[in-house]
Amino acid sequence: MFEIEKSTASAWFRQLRDDIVVAFEALEDSHDTGPFAAAQPGRFEVKETKRHSDDGSDAGGGLMSVMRGGRVFEKVGVNVSTVYGTLGERAQHAMAARKGIPGMTEDPRFWASGISLVAHMQNPHVPAVHMNTRMFWTPHAWWFGGGSDLNPCIEYEDDTAHFHSVQKAHLDPHGPGHYPRLKEWADEYFYIPHRKRARGVGGIFMDDYCTGDWTADFALTQDIGRAFLPAFLPLVEKRRVQGFDDADKNTQLVHRGLYAEYNLVYDRGTKFGLETGHDPDAVLMSLPPLAKWV
What we know:
Layout: H1 3-30, E1 45-52, E2 58-68, E3 73-86, H2 89-94, E4 109-121, E5 128-137, E6 142-151, H3 157-171, H4 178-189, E7 191-192, E8 197-198, E9 202-209, H5 214-226, H6 228-239, H7 246-265, H8 268-275, H9 280-283
Antiparallel strand pairs: 1-2, 2-3, 3-4, 4-5, 5-6, 6-9, 7-8
Helix pairs in contact: 1-5, 3-6
């Protein structure tokens, strides 16, 4: 049961990964004016990841694709994975939602697939960004999750407006209530309680999303993924040519410290990935290459 749906979702996440990798390397090639234009264009290093159960049996894996030190991207990771096995007690508690599913204790099998992306940029005027979409299945329940959010260290209101407007345009065909609901969800999720502030300018986010109509829910998840490139690429193309000074770079490094705090303390995906034994380098690829605390 659900084998076709799982295969379809996994293939979609892989295709989205491929499209993004191609687009990001094209950005590197086209950057011929402004800061870092004289550097060699960046390329993704691709590593196959493997996961094993406690008894050593295969438990899935994926691809970790990371670009470092490019013209445009200082560090960007685009990971895709499909993993399966059984959920231990700690892993069940680390799940984003659906704790205490009836029957889970007796049959703790699970399957999960998704794409996860985090980009930290060379130029402080270009915003950092995060995106992920995923599907989770157990014999007792299934759901989707994910979204994308913008994390500028130097905010431009027109950039923020563009990012949100593209996401709204992709969500509106699924019903006018989706965008405001997912925007509010993102504002709540990407909030840093100990700093009493948001980590960026928001976006869209959903978790534990299941209406019971798999086809409709998957279509919504796909459009969250499809919105990413048209929402983000124009911002990169516009800001990557701007000059910056040491003060701008310092602002970027301090903001990255905020980003690292959130991902290590609050992010549910980080907790779940580590608790289920996934490659820690892949789980922690979201961390910036350099950051600063003052």
